[in-house]
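hiii so um. not sure if this is the right channel but i have a protein structure encoded as tokens and i wanna go backwards to a sequence. like what aa goes where. can anyone help
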């Protein structure tokens, strides 16, 4: 197993018994570390031996020296024991901790799999210690909004589903960057649908509760295609459900769209779909929408719209808006963008 493997490959290797002796699972996004830890807990020690040869600790409850002493013991019912440590960021703040860990890694007991879950980015000294042989040092990447659709597609495939682009983007706008929520919503589909099912907007609406007609995805499309009637209709629905459709999320989507549209105007070849998608770093599915939007919005207007979005964002944050209500802000936004 490569030390630069993806979390999915790490989990697959754990399931196949291809193990490291020590796992150091870190990063700003804790979702991936949780999934790897879950695989360790489910696949290394058989259920009948877990009460004897598997232990889960929180770093604030046990000293590193006591933990490493426990890791040096022999299993009682199995050929291996698993020790999982959460909140490991409470360790390794002193030279003593680093030295103790270094000594352990120089003489790793073959009967123990030891896992640390460390929230955040480990420093250079910690990384150096955990760069030893038989150690997997995993640092989860920071996840950005534009990466969520790809992660949803990956998880859909992993669960045995096929999903159309609109369904993926509806779900991505609904969950934001909350990966645990993303998995929970897709798991809802696993309960009611057979493996191999095609996920459509109708299915998303029925089982997850996102309207296929009234969502941020459709709102952006209405604005992009100059459909002012549809934009106001969706805005009215948003205003009746402000808790589900925050103005912050709406503004973020529109800002991203108009930023991409501005860049589109600078491209030398605006007709080649694959080149446009590559330059804008978007799914080719959205290129026709960008091309159509360019008929309504030139570079000068886009610049003004971006200023409008920034001004609206300030108002949403309570600066200069007085007591403006949600419906007034969103209606004013549509008017200024599409007039």
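sure thing!! here u go:
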């Amino acid at each position: 197993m490569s030390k630069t493997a993806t979390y999915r490959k790490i989990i697959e290797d754990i399931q196949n018994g291809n193990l490291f002796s020590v796992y150091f699972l870190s990063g700003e996004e804790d979702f991936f570390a949780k999934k790897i830890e879950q695989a360790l807990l489910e696949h290394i020690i058989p259920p009948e031996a877990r009460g004897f040869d598997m232990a889960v600790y929180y770093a604030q409850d046990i000293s590193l020296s006591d933990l490493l002493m426990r890791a040096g013991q022999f299993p009682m019912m199995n050929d291996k024991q698993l020790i999982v440590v959460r909140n490991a960021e409470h360790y390794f703040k002193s030279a003593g901790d680093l030295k103790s860990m270094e000594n352990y890694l120089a003489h790793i007991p073959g009967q123990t799999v030891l896992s640390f879950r460390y929230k955040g980015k480990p420093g250079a000294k910690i990384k150096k210690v955990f760069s030893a042989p038989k150690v997997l040092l995993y640092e989860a990447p920071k996840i950005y909004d534009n990466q969520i659709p790809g992660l949803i597609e990956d998880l859909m495939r992993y669960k045995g589903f096929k999903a159309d682009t609109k369904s993926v983007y509806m779900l991505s706008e609904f969950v934001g960057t909350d990966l645990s929520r993303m998995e929970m919503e897709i798991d809802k589909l696993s309960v009611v649908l057979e493996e191999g099912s095609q996920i459509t907007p109708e299915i998303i609406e029925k089982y997850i509760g996102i309207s296929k007609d009234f969502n941020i995805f459709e709102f952006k499309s209405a604005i992009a295609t100059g459909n002012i009637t549809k934009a106001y209709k969706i805005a009215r629905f948003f205003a009746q459900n402000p808790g589900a459709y925050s103005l912050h999320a709406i503004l973020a989507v529109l800002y991203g769209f108009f930023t991409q549209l501005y860049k589109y105007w600078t491209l030398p070849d605006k007709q080649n779909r694959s080149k446009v998608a590559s330059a804008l770093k978007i799914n080719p599915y959205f290129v026709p929408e960008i091309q159509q939007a360019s008929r309504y919005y030139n570079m000068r207007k886009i610049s003004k719209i971006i200023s409008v979005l920034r001004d609206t964002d300030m108002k949403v944050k309570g600066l200069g808006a007085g007591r403006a209500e949600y419906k007034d802000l969103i209606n004013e936004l549509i008017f200024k963008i599409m007039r």
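oh and The chain has a mean pLDDT of 92.
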